[in-house]
Amino acid sequence: MKLGLIGDDFTGSSDLANTLAKEGMRVVQYTGVPEHDADPSVEAGVVALKSRSIPVADAVAQSLAALDWLRAQGCTQFFFKYCSTFDSTPEGNIGPVADALADALGARQVIVCPAFPGTGRSVYQGHLFVNDRLLNESGMQNHPLTPMTDPDIRRWLAPQTTGTVGHVATQDVFAGPEAIRAALAREDAAGHRLIVVDAIRDADLRDIGTAARDLPLVTGGSGVALGLPANFGCIPGTPDWQGQAGPAICLSGSCSIATRAQVAEHRARNPARELGAEEVIEGRLDPDEVARWLLAQDGLPLAYSSADPDIVAEVQARYGRDRAGHAFEEFFAATARAAVAQGATRVITAGGETSGAVVEGLGLGELRIGPEIDPGVPALRARDDLVLALKSGNFGAPDFFDKANRLLAGA
Ligand SMILES: Nc1ncnc2c1ncn2[C@@H]1O[C@H](COP(=O)(O)OP(=O)(O)OP(=O)(O)O)[C@@H](O)[C@H]1O
Ligand SMILES: O=C(O)[C@@H](O)C(=O)CO
Questions:
Q1: pLDDT for position 144
Q2: How far, in Å, are 360, 366, 411 from residue 363 at the CA level?
Q3: What is the position in ligand 2's atom list of the atom closest to the CA of 119?
Q4: Any residues with CB less than 8 A from the CB of 240 and at least 6 apart, and which?
Q5: Top CATH class, 248-409
Q6: For position 411, what pLDDT does the model report?
Q7: Of all protein residues, whose CA lies closest to atom 10 belonging to ligand 1?
Q8: What is the whole-number distance in angstroms between the Cα of residue 351 and the centre of ligand 2?
Q9: Tens-digit pLDDT profile for residues 386-408
């Protein structure tokens, strides 16, 4: 293994694996830290954690355990993947995990770059944009777990790290890899270890990748991984894919804007069942029964709890944010388990936390990466009889569920 990657959620990890696979790396996504060594043919190993919204100390401990395993597999460079919308709170977990990994590796000049132009996320003069909106006006200010209320990544990161935050601005990035290297060295000399790097185009990300060739640790969204495989001599290509026959189900616990639009579009033409917060949280809904309902439908069935921000706020005020979140996640995991036990072979999930709960609930250890469905979302093979698509909240075209199902089926 050459490149060792640690993802703070499962959809984000598959987004990252997708980028590396398209750039020609042989990549596998692991659910948590594996207990065995990797197959020697794997060039890039993505250890998917569910560490974005857990207590800081747990996120740090899990990330360090992942780092130990990746080091033991022979990796020479490491990557910490977080969300392209920099999902975190003033306590963490991006800063503390980046600090801990940098300490363990003795790394300096640690790039911090959430940009992902393919999905509209760019970093300009230290500020994160989603398309033409600043992050804090993009809808992310209403995120149920990590509301993002400041678009200045330097300012948002500052309270999360023990050091000071540096910046490599667009004018240096546009000047190419040598200028980026020089700017990183300048920020290092000024005493900054975590350095926010601007990027607004894929070409910028490739140049940053070239500049990062000898850096032990890079952090960011999947975008900044774009330029890394070339440093290992990889050549872009399309991963192989064998379609999977059998029944499909969709599960959505994401309340993000893109998912809510996808749910509305899907519901208009397919069987869809809304999971009521009261019933789920108070344990009055049976996941086996919901799984039976899903498998009894014609068309592509969807079970969802996706709701508008005012409804989510009411649910959280009544039950508490964590209790509500966990109840839905456990419910989706149990429903997926029951549906697969009853014969489902294609499972499409929306939402990072939701997808993580489902993959863990299904006990899937390794995911092989197939072709891209939409930017940031690959087809995944878990077993000979089970394929998945794990969609990040704000990713995907309006008809994502249908599109994913067609590609997973090999149509
Ligand atoms: N109706 C609801 N009321 C309150 N909380 C909900 C509701 N539906 C889902 N949730 C919770 O909101 C959280 C949504 O997070 P999740 O990561 O799954 O989606 P997302 O944030 O849109 O995706 P991503 O992290 O990929 O951007 C989960 O913890 C989920 O259980
Ligand atoms: O980077 C992104 O936006 C996604 O991969 C993600 O992590 C959303 O949960």
A1: 77
A2: 5, 9, 27
A3: 3
A4: 370
A5: alpha beta
A6: 83
A7: 325
A8: 9
A9: 999 999 999 999 999 999 999 99
pTM, to two decimals? 0.94
Q: Which CATH superfamily is domain 3-231 in?
A: Putative sugar-binding, N-terminal domain (3.40.50.10840)
User: How do strand 44-48 and strand 3-7 relate by DSSP bridges?
Assistant: parallel
Q: What is the CA radius of gyration of the chain?
A: 20
The rounded mean pLDDT for the chain is 97
Question: Which ligand 2 atom is nearest residue 395's CA?
Answer: 3
Best residue for ligand 1 mutational test, from 280, 354, 390 (most atoms within 8 Å of Cβ): 354
Please enumerate in sequence order all residues whose Cβ is within 8 A of that of 57, keeping only pairs 6 or more positions apart, or say none: none
Q: Which residue lies with its CA nearest to atom 27 of ligand 1?
A: 393
Of ligand 1's listed atoms, the one at least distance from the Cα of 144 is 12
Task: Report the alpha-carbon distance of residue 282 to residue 276 in Å, rounded.
Answer: 10
For residue 376, the ligand 2 atom closest to its alpha carbon is 5
At 125 the pLDDT is 98
The ligand minimizing its distance to the Cα of 53 is 1
How many CA atoms lie less than 13 Å away from 201 in the CB half-sphere?
7
ipTM exceeding 0.95, yes/no = yes
Which ligand has the minimum distance to the alpha carbon of residue 116? 2
145 pLDDT band (50/70/90 cuts)?
A: confident
State which ligand 1 atom lies nearest to the alpha carbon of 392: 26
Q: Residue of the nearest CA to atom 5 in ligand 2?
A: 12
Q: What is the domain partition of the chain in residue ranges? A: 3-231, 248-409
358 with 333: CB under 8 angstroms?
Answer: yes
| Strands 44-48 and 377-383, sheet pairing | unpaired
175-219 residue pLDDT tens: 999 999 999 999 999 999 999 999 999 999 999 999 999 999 999
Ligand nearest to the CA of 309: 1
Q: Could you tell me the distance, in angstroms and rounded to a whole number, from the CA of residue 282 to the centre of ligand 2?
A: 30
